Amino acid sequence: MASTPTVFRDALVVTQDAERRVVRADVRVENGRFVHVGERAPSEGAEVVDARTFAIVPGFVNAHTHVAMAPLRGLADDRDLGGFLERLFAVDAKRTEADVEAGALAGVAEMLLSGTTSFLDLYYFEDGVARAVDALGARGFLGWAVLDPELTTQKGAPLDNAKAFIQRWSGNARVQPLVAPQGVYVCNEATWLGAKAIAETNHTLVHYHLSETRREVHEHEKKTGLRPPLWLDKIGFLGPGQVAAHGVWMMRREIETLARRSVGVAHCPSSNMKLATGGVAPVREMRECGIAVGLGTDSVASNNSLSMLREMHIAGLLQKHQTWDTSVLPAQVLLDMATIEGARLLGRAADLGSVEVGKRADFSLVRLDHPTLLPARPAAIVSHLAYSASEEAFDSVFVAGEPVVRGRELVRGSWPEIRSAAEAAADALWRAVP
Amino acid sequence: MASTPTVFRDALVVTQDAERRVVRADVRVENGRFVHVGERAPSEGAEVVDARTFAIVPGFVNAHTHVAMAPLRGLADDRDLGGFLERLFAVDAKRTEADVEAGALAGVAEMLLSGTTSFLDLYYFEDGVARAVDALGARGFLGWAVLDPELTTQKGAPLDNAKAFIQRWSGNARVQPLVAPQGVYVCNEATWLGAKAIAETNHTLVHYHLSETRREVHEHEKKTGLRPPLWLDKIGFLGPGQVAAHGVWMMRREIETLARRSVGVAHCPSSNMKLATGGVAPVREMRECGIAVGLGTDSVASNNSLSMLREMHIAGLLQKHQTWDTSVLPAQVLLDMATIEGARLLGRAADLGSVEVGKRADFSLVRLDHPTLLPARPAAIVSHLAYSASEEAFDSVFVAGEPVVRGRELVRGSWPEIRSAAEAAADALWRAVP
Questions:
Q1: Which of the four, A87, A222, A361, B200, has the lowest number of CB atoms within 10 Å?
Q2: Do the beta carbons of residue A63 and residue A296 sit within 8 Å?
Q3: Cis peptide leading into residue B304 (ω within 30°)
Q4: Interatomic CA distance for residues B116 and B311, integer angstroms
């Protein structure tokens, strides 16, 4: 069911290719991929769109979130991590697959409307999330959370649930299922290695929380004699195809270990700052060591936005502030982290994350005439994306060449209906907290 | 020329009154002021608006910016303060009153479209800014920058220019002119005291940069033996009606001095972080000492956004991160800083900054059905404003009861025309940099 080819004529293309070229060019999309990026694309058999007033920007990759938590935004603000988790766990125990799906639809809608086309998720009842992704046309990399059987509220053994989830969704065009150990504080050696085995057998990614707080690191070291990354290496867990979220409290040797094992990291600055975890992820060092570092919003319970535009801005501010160096994480690197580096984390740098011939056509049409992109000069466009562009400028968003947002409206879902279901879920869930 | 009274029926009103009540209520606006906030407002002679799907939120006060710099966004990113200023000064020397006006129109439009109704500005050619404010219907507190005559590129003596500017615009309903010493690095004792005399004679505010960088503090101490606030106190400058921007590098005694002299502070976290000034403004301490602390975006050259929504989010994140305390600057305080505390800074707490009977009707209608305000529960609305709401949710904005934005469009100006003039200004100005 190939859709009509489309030629976007004379757009300002933020390619994110190897040379990071920003060029006035035509872009032709066919069978879900870019087939021409350059001067005068052939228009045979194609719908032609005058794109002079738009930038074409690769779809953002949100490298760490819990999208179904949308109805919980504002539920647990301004509390320390203990108080925060207490409220969230009270709600967690009440959640159903139906309200997870309702929440995921709202969260996926919010992401698509801000130019995010791919995201890496960690939660339970992920079938609900998968249906939301499938319905709205996003690209979901969905990790079923696993933890030790005696600690979970899931029905059945978490590892078995993860395996079954992966088998149910493997082969889906938009949903890439995976397994997601929650963290060293709730996963023993068997759980970690069980997750790894599932990933190897099913050729999936592994996603997990790592070294987010001092306390997590301290308690694990007290228990095992090793800080989390070194312990995970010792038990034989670490390896390629893994994405660790946070990676805040790490010593040099831990960073080198992750680099040697080809583990990627999802940096989540807003969440870390809002939860006052104290540390700052050593992004510069990680990048220098060759680690792929993407950007994640984490959930709306701890951010409280799902906008990668805000996340780029904040990531840049935090690293410059922390290092007393304005040149750290310049705008181009921030955009890299939100696009091509995110794709690299997901093992998909060959077909996602940039506007290049042969790649999947996941991209946004961004209004160059929006106030937050003034002046719309080619030399400034990357800066505007990283530091100032508002979500409203993202006029249309495409995944695999198909529109999922057009003129600020969802194409494959009705926002009033999604909203009303998510508000109903919120009504029920907020009642669960003291 | 009184406009028709309007009744907004059944809105979710974020009053920002003394009890910080969030209530479902009717709001009646008449002769530019709120005349009823509560149950069932009388609708005689009034246009009645069904406001059930909206929050009514006080207009934001941007307590420090250089609005006319809009065409310079992205011109000097990721450079240290020296390199940043070098580029900006190269442009400054080329600016004309006409391009300042073109830039100010774009910047004021961007602010109105994100719910900011009042702002405190520091620049030269402020007549251009004043005309932009007057044209678009914002409320501008406009400071003419003064510095020592031998250091300025202004024609004529800066103090005389400031005095003449104040006299030209005094009595204007929307423009409140004032005098703005640039900072201790370019103002000697005579300039500071001359500015104070102008302010006293003309009953205006004084706005200035203070203790933004370590270097500024260090060099002033080397020169005078005193750190800037203590030196300003010693020369007899400090007093009420003054707003100091930044206030980053300050010891306890300096904070106490500002508090004793009733000086307000405009906190500009994004700009400080992006320029890597290293320090963090001691917001908690300042507030504990009784200083009115507002929020400022600074200019788009160093932020690069003019959105007070982003600024609240970032202010909260930075203080929580810095103090390792999630409870510092909770959502309510962030919203206070962006509204009623800003009004207090401007000496206008009695008639701006909240939705209360008798106050000027400066407010926004915020869409409760926007994805970034989900769930739209009264208990979460303050959190959403501080941490997640996107500019797009600000459907309509009113100043003195008159619409200045309606359905995301400027009412009193044409964005395509404003944009085209500002882009032309950018074309000329960007040519000035090496």
A1: A222
A2: yes
A3: yes
A4: 12
Q: B16 falls in which pLDDT band (50, 70, 90)? A: very high
pLDDT at site B2 = 55
Residue B15 and residue B356 in contact, taking contact as beta carbons nearer than 8 Å: yes
Q: How far apart are CA B100 and CA B96, in angstroms?
A: 6
> What secondary structure, in 3-state letters, does A110-157 show?
HHHCCCEEEEEEEECCHHHHHHHHHHHCCEEEEEEEECCHHHCCCCCC
Is B276 part of the contact surface with chain A (CB cutoff 8 Å)?
Answer: yes
Instruction: Give the highest mean pLDDT range of A88-97, A185-194, B145-154.
Output: A185-194
The DSSP 8-state label assigned to residue A4 in this structure reads P
Q: Is A31 on the interface with B (CB under 8 A)?
A: no
Q: Per-residue confidence at A1, pLDDT binned at 50, 70, 90?
A: very low
Q: Rounded CA gap, B295 and B89, in Å?
A: 25
pLDDT above 70 covers a percentage of chain B that reads: 100
Instruction: Decide if A270 and B73 are in contact by the 8 Å CB cutoff.
Output: no
- Amino acid at position B350, single letter: A
Return mean pLDDT, chain B.
Answer: 96
Residue keyed to tokens 């009744």: B7
Q: What is the pLDDT of residue B1?
A: 44
CATH number assigned to the domain covering A60-345: 3.20.20.140
Judged by a CB distance cut-off of 8 A, whether residue B404 touches chain A is no
Q: Which residue has the tokens 């502070």?
A: B265
Say yes or no to pLDDT of A61 above 70. Answer: yes
- Whether B200 has its CB under 8 Å from any CB of chain A: the answer is no
**B110 contact residues in A (CB cutoff 8 A):** 371-372, 374
pLDDT tens-place string over residues A355-365: 999 999 999 99
Q: Where in chain B is the domain with CATH 3.20.20.140?
A: 60-345
* CATH 2.30.40.10 applies to domain B6-58+352-410: yes
- Segments of chain A assigned to CATH 2.30.40.10: 6-59+353-410
Q: Where in chain B is the domain with CATH 2.30.40.10?
A: 6-58+352-410
